[in-house]
Design a protein that fits this description.
The structure is a homodimer. Chain A folds into 2 domains: about 110 residues, 2-Layer Sandwich (Nucleotidyltransferase, domain 5); about 160 residues, ATPase, nucleotide binding domain (Nucleotidyltransferase, domain 5), CATH 3.30.420. Chain A contains 10 helices and 13 strands. By secondary structure, chain A is an alpha/beta fold. In chain A, β10 and β11 form a beta hairpin. In chain A, the strands form 3 sheets. Chain A has a 5-stranded mixed sheet with strand order 3-2-1-4-8. A 5-stranded mixed sheet of chain A has the order 11-10-9-12-13, with helices on both faces. Chain A has a 3-stranded antiparallel sheet with strand order 5-6-7. The radius of gyration of chain A is 19 Å and the shape is globular. At the A-B interface, α7 and α9 of A face α7 and α9 of B. Chains A, B: Belongs to the ROK (NagC/XylR) family.
């Protein structure tokens, strides 16, 4: 039995996956703040999904920069600057987990849960924007673990200033934090509120929505024109707006292709897919990665 | 003995490479127009570099879209709409060549000729702009052979109109044809003339040069933030301007990183390298690909 855990900013979701690749147990709990609380939550979740089953390989998807050895850095929204998560968890449960960046783990999960594709990018539209790229079921980390970090590609030199110092980063126009900052009104769900107000005709909301759509379309185009993945799967909080986001993004991609036989031949709009509804892609991906330092083919 | 041939818009360069990976013969001839003339040139070049040596595997790097089976499409500057090049050459010389896109072949050659890197992008700055990506010595084609086609990423919605219909494509600001069109004065070497006139203080030339530098920097950033290749090797005609292009591109990359610990950690400017001086990377890459449908590791 493999265990996969997706540590999110607010909740930690764990699954136990049997040898047939079926999810046989799940656990959902609030994510604590700081390394110790996060490790506590991971260990409790492992015990919760395993019950009396013998411990098996464990995989963990974590925000931030994750080294191949399992050291997590800059998981700022968890209050973690740096922690050797693999070591800390191993000391507690006696099993050394495979730790992967959460978006990359979700990409592996999405690749396993979707109809067979050789290559896929999982584009996470959350507080920030980043993608995980999978080829042949293997996560692609790149030379320095930065593969898929497209949030800081600038697509408009006259765009809004990004906390990174550039202007017009994809994350600044399409990330939840960027939209919230530009919207400027406190809201539990700023992007949804912006879309609602745009529907109601609010000019600022309309321009923020248009920028978000352009940013997501640019992210899809960047992923396909660079990595040429078969599918770009949209996930993350913003993607839960469903067709309210997908439809205008497809329209923008078709508009970009309308003048170019080359772009048209790439069928960008048709290569966009939503994350499988209700599937815990992050936790399943982490389970698939468990026991393998370099990732495993989809399906156990 | 392997033969590698790089079919360029003006010249066809062929090399014979021995089992030790050394170039033992080269042939350089003008490229003809149209499929028949191109095939004639390829076959003549094979005989020229082989001399009395027994025929071995042959690899050909061609502009345009190249199918895994060796069909070449849209090689417009060669006057070729579509041709089964592998078949046409096999019928003439009795050896079925491996045919690859010329930029991708050059990427394989650059990877073989540079100090060992697991991943590399060869960014061709010529009439157009495109990159070839190599991992572990293997060219990465992507789902539809479009991997590395970053020329049509838009980096400025207010930028110049690209023939593809978008505005501000990297190719429109950093490709030789785009620069020539915006310069508007007939010149055998428009980009060099623009750089000379910029040095002399011409305002239009200065703005075109600034746009070109921004476009190249954006291409490097897109390749690293998406594929995270270890090295980005600059080649093609524009790159022959050397430090006149490299220095300002490095400055632009450092400026982008100055506000961002994440971008700074990627050392974008330090990951930029010129194509090995005087090395026929395209022909050598084609030779390395010869005899293998999926590419071979660098070094024979």
């Amino acid at each position: 039995m493999r265990v996969g855990i997706d540590v999110g900013g607010t909740k930690t979701l764990a699954v136990a996956v049997d040898d047939g690749g079926r999810v046989v147990a799940t656990d959902r709990r609030a994510t604590g703040r700081g390394a110790e609380a996060v490790v506590d939550g991971i260990c409790a979740a492992v015990h919760a999904v395993l019950g009396d089953a013998p411990p098996g390989p464990v995989g963990v998807g974590m925000p931030g920069q994750v080294s191949p050895g399992g050291v997590v850095r800059h998981a700022l929204n968890l209050g973690i600057g740096s922690v050797d998560l693999a070591e800390a968890v191993a000391a507690r449960i006696g099993v050394r987990p495979v730790v992967e960046n959460d978006v990359r783990a979700a990409a592996v999960g999405a690749a396993a849960l979707l109809p067979a594709t050789d290559s896929l990018a999982y584009l996470n539209l959350g507080t920030g924007v980043a993608a995980g790229i999978v080829r042949g079921g293997m996560p692609w980390r790149g030379a320095r673990g930065a593969a898929g970090e497209i949030g800081h590609l600038s697509v408009d030199p006259a765009g809004p200033v990004c906390p990174c110092g550039q202007r017009g980063c994809i994350e600044a126009v399409a990330g939840g934090a960027g939209v919230a900052a530009r919207w400027g009104k406190p809201s539990p769900l700023p992007v949804a509120e912006v879309f609602d107000c745009a529907d109601a005709g609010d000019p600022l909301a309309r321009s923020l929505r248009a920028d978000l759509v352009r940013g997501v379309a640019a992210a899809v185009q960047a992923l396909v024109l660079t990595a040429d993945v078969e599918l770009v799967v949209l996930g993350g909080g913003v993607s839960r707006l469903g067709e309210r986001v997908f439809a205008p993004v497809r329209t923008a991609l078709r508009a970009a292709a309308s003048g170019s036989a080359f772009l048209a031949s790439l069928d960008l709009a048709e290569r966009l897919a939503p994350v499988p509804a209700g599937e815990p892609v992050g936790a399943v991906g982490a389970a698939l990665l468990a026991g393998s330092p370099v990732g495993v083919a989809p399906g156990l």
